Fold this protein.
Amino acid sequence: MVSYCNYKYVSIPDKRLAFLQYGSIALVFSYVLFGMILLNKGYLAYDNVVGSVRFRLDNMNTESNHPYCQGEGGAACVKWDQYDVRYPLSGETNSLFITTAVEQSYEERDNEDQIFTQVNKTNYRVAGIENFWLRVSHSVEAPQHHAADPQGGFAASEKSIQGTLLGQDGSVLLEFNAYRKEDIIPLSKLLEAAGVDLDSESDRVVRPMMGMGMGGMKKSTNSFNTFRDRGLVLFVTISYENYQDSFFGTTPARYSYRVSRVPEAEYNAAQVVYPPSSSLDPSRPYSPSASHTSRVVQSRAGIQLQLSQTGRLAMFSVNALLMCIAGGMGLLAVGATVVESLAFYVLPAKNEYAKAMVEVADVQSLTPQSKPKSS
């Protein structure tokens, strides 16, 4: 039979139910107040950041005596500046390749088949690459918060906020104070943050051989097996936040650099250099390989840097606070349902409790009786 249900308040003298009821209320209240509102800062609204970043490389290399420059494996060293080591020499972007070692082949064109053949090959390394400095300029914005409060500090650059460079264990390797031109990071510190020593053996030199399956492993016979000679890929992430360093509320925005190396990833790039030619015919289409009798092919190994920006900025929000409170009310309802279920179905006096908590209305007694019609 379809019926209408109405809530009825019944006082049940049972200490077990009273303990569960008031205990659940205390737990929910503590969780909402201390867990959701204070610890997790449920009164804050978060906005993902967007931004822009650019790299510049500076040459602070003044040393030339390095252990890896002593001709080990037939490799000598050259001293290059910031324009030589960077390849390709393109605009300032969030990607940068820094040359650490070069395998150079000198080739001459065969007069018969017009194909370039190798005459000789040399290997050399770039001296003091760890002494180069990286100059980073970046800006960031939390678009929704900045639109709501343009003066709230939700759009800034490295010139106005403080930052740090963190190591693998979270320790601070460098600090960047506000009111400066840009972030200056020695490449040696960037490698330290990634936990990389360029002269240690690359993890790419051990690989499965074809036809042997993943169980068959063989060490590379290449004599140049270090990260310096084979290259590596580093991901540099700038994270922004303004709420983690405070117990209540927000703080001025801060950022931190974290650097990670991609396992078993090497990086190299090829460059072809043609000497000047005086026999060019301006009336014919120019083809570099067809217009020269010799060329130099450089296979560059080095550090490939990829920089990205991430993080969230927060501001106080009444809506977020009300959502936390509403979530707490829902948990209270769950607790009440559990207590009522125990009273209905589990406790020994469940039948008496059910009779006291549920009452079926007498519909006939509530309906006025119809009076007989007069003739």
